Amino acid sequence: MQESGIQDDAEIEQIYGVTKGLPYYLNWIRREVQAGKKPDFSRGNDDIAKLLLQGLNAGQRRLIEVAACFRQFKRKNLERVLAQLRDAEGLELAAVGEKAVFDWLTDREAMQFVEKRDGHHRLDDVARDVFRLSLFEADEALFRVVQGVIAADYLAQSQQVEPEDAGYRARYENVDWRRLRAAYLYHLLLSGEKSAELVFRSHLLEAQHFRVDALVRDPLKDLVGEFGLEQHPFLRDKLRRFLVKVQPAVEQGWAVLEKFPIDYAYNEEKLKLSKNQIDLAVQTCLEKPEALAGLARFVALIYQSGRCLESRRLGYLRQAEVLAAGLVEPEEDEFSSGLYLWSLGNRFFEYGSKEEAIASFDQALGIKPDYHEAWYNRGVSLANLGRTEEAIASYDQALGIKPDKHEAWTNRGVALGNLGRHEEAIASYDQALGIKPDDSSALYNKACAYALSSQPDLALTHLHQAIQLNPENRTLAQTDSDFDSLRGNEQFQTLLQSS
After folding, report:
1. By CB neighbour count within 10 A (0-12 exposed, 13-18 middle, 19+ buried), where does 268 fall?
2. Which residues contact 178 (CB under 8 A, 6 or more apart)?
3. Which residues contact residue 8 at a Cβ distance below 8 angstroms, ignoring those fewer than 6 apart?
4. Mean pLDDT, residues 183-205 taken together
């Protein structure tokens, strides 16, 4: 800019906005100014558009416009898309002389605005905007067709990497499949197809289930980075409004969709999301679950159960439970049993239906018998129902698989204590403390066991340690009937009154 004699900050900022600071365009501006022809950027990038379009015949221009629709391309997928456009639309894009289309397009001397990165080619951001807008304004219908054909090509590539019958987990845990699907979603949204909203919502819910939110976050991020959602010229109005609504769920999926209950205060303070934004995102993502299919519908029902009136929670879970049987994949026991353990069983427990929780844990164990979390959670549910012997048996199963699960040793001790088997309970607490010496719950319950078995000194010693680790244990001890035998003990009273 200094060499061009341009020093006004506002003018420089305007030039940067149009050229993205890319040397190809800045050099052109310098040459124009030095030749006495200063470009006019008051009308946006019109002058740059003229620069890019000069010397191109209609066929060449259309070819570059199609290439601009790609975020990035390789020879094979460009040629596949061009062949499909020729066959389906009768579009002839080979008017480039003797050179092959790809070779002509990637000739760095002739096409300085086509760059190569990480084995892919792409038009730089300025040229891409110019040529896409040129195609869109000349023939919007063709622009949509091109985006749809590119989307279909990425979809086909993803299905080659992981076929649909490979199963949900195999697909969503495959990095290459996710990369291709993200590209598919990006182009599908720009194609304006009626299915785009439902397809995007399905992938959003499924990706959240597997904690791979980037699959939907990346295409949305690309659209936002181009023009912003509110002003994006290539998105249909209805789809643009949909994306604006679901944006909080795409960018902050767990906090918006899954966390129960929603922490509105945290979301507003840390994530800068208002209650209205969150509620609108949730409503849009989860509306009409019957329109969804497979895992997406299952996930929508699970999340809806935590976002509805309390009286309707179990109803949504039971609908999801019916779907779960059809989602089980014999070769994917971790995924399949997880549907019953994490999605159904834990929520049945949270919503107060312990019997249905146990039934779900049993389903999980029928798929994956060595699932120690399911045995443990089953034991917790049984204990809540007062089925103490069965609780103990479930904890034993969990510990047989994972002997260092200190929570299971502690809860096993509590169950044994409830049966009056205090020596065995103390042995269980010792196992827990051998794994986690600062387990204040094990220390407190061990103190209870000593008090109930008439060993006051040991009870006081362990209660003191438990209070040191967690002062809330002092409050518990004040009303805990397990310590009734120590109420008259001066040392016990001192422990309760100390601050």
Report:
1. middle
2. 172, 212, 214, 215
3. none
4. 98
Q: What span, in angstroms and rounded, lies between the C-alpha atoms of 298 and 314? A: 14
Predicted local distance difference test score (pLDDT) of residue 257: 94
Distance CA 438, CA 466 (A): 8
Complete DSSP assignment for 20-35? TT-HHHHHHHHHHHHT
298: helix, coil or strand?
helix
- For the residues 350-367, what does the mean pLDDT come to? 98
Tokens of 445: 């319950």
Give DSSP secondary structure letters for 33-47. Answer: HHTT-----TTSSHH
Query: If you write DSSP's letter for every residue of 304-321 in order, what string do you get?
Result: HHTSS-GGGHHHHHHHHH
pLDDT score recorded for residue 50: 82
Q: Write down the pLDDT at residue 250.
A: 97
Mean pLDDT in residue range 34-44: 80
Taking a C-beta distance cutoff of 8 angstroms, is the pair 442, 410 a contact?
Answer: yes
Residue matched to tokens 């917790």: 380
pLDDT of residue 448: 98
Q: Domains along the chain?
A: 9-159 (no CATH), 385-432 (1.25.40.10), 438-499 (no CATH)
**Is residue 95 helix, strand or coil?**
coil
Token readout for 317 is 């879970």
Beta bridge partners of 117: 120
Q: Which residues pair with 73 in a beta bridge?
A: 121
Residue with tokens 């209950």: 261
Q: Residue 247's closest CA among 226, 210, 219?
A: 219
Contacts of 294 (CB under 8 A, 6+ apart): 168, 323, 326, 327
- Find the helix or strand (DSSP H, E) in which 116 lies: strand 114-117
Contact of 245 with 281, CB cutoff 8 Å:
yes
d(CA 5, CA 3): 5
What's the predicted TM-score (pTM) here? 0.90
